[in-house]
Amino acid sequence: MTTARSLVVVCGATMAIACASSPAEQNGEQRAEPPVVQVVGHDFALDAPDSLPPGLTRFTFRSDGTVPHEVSIARVKQGVSLDSLLRLELNGADITGLYDPGEGLLYIDVGETVDAALLVTLERGRDYVLICTLDEKGKPHSMLGMVRGLRVTAR
Ligand SMILES: [Cu+2]
Fold first, then answer.
1. What is the pLDDT of residues 49-74, one digit of tens each?
2. In CATH terms, is domain 15-19+33-152 a member of 2.60.40.420?
3. How far apart are the CA of 23 and the centre of ligand 1, in A?
């Protein structure tokens, strides 16, 4: 099944859409740009780093897939094992109760480029999950391999 929609970005407590310049920037003040991390979607895998340092990070999304893909980024609840969460997802379990509310999502259709990003303040020592929940013939892309963890280093 292909969900008919264009770009969808969902913002929550830990996410924000990269958008217009801030008031400080409009006043001519220089601000350090957050590091950019490009996530790449394939049929059916997500390329992304396994770990990143804490701090504000700009996630972009590109896809070379032959079907639409998305990447959703959510912070795993404290006390939840990232490995067991990934195993559950690969086996088709509902993991929505295992990550904190407030996830961000970038969607991209076949052949599109998306000029949008998710700004995420990665928290020191926390785990995040990157996932595509679109379906391919009734099977979520996540179960086909489009789920991965991201560990934020302690410093
Ligand atoms: Cu996908």
1. 999 999 999 999 999 999 999 999 99
2. yes
3. 36
